[in-house]
Model the fold of this input.
Amino acid sequence: MAEDNTRYEQVKMVCGEDCGNAPKKEFLRAFNAAFVCNDIDFINEKTIEDIQWNIIGRNTLQGKEQVFGMLKKLMDKTPTELIISNIITHGYSGSLNGILNLENNMSYAFCNIYRFNSSLNKTKIKEITSYIIDISK
Done:
């Protein structure tokens, strides 16, 4: 985890029972926690240099520099709760869906689809496709 893990302590994490019963499921759970908490060190370690992040309906980011640039822009959004409903993995692919609640009463339902650079458990993420829906009240 990042040296300053304050954001980890501030975010309530809720995860379904079966979301951590396999190495890649645990990897995606930890990756999403790091993503929400802006743990750049963890994300850097778990992604390839030329990572691609497709944010459906918005844009496509190519490479760590662009991805980290977007994460820095999101730093002012303070997360309060990450609810992970499902994690599915198989071979080179995985997906995770849930709800992210922010401090300002904003809520987003999301589904992330991942492509790994290998089918092994000790793999890195090479592509993320994100579907994000504002469900704020």
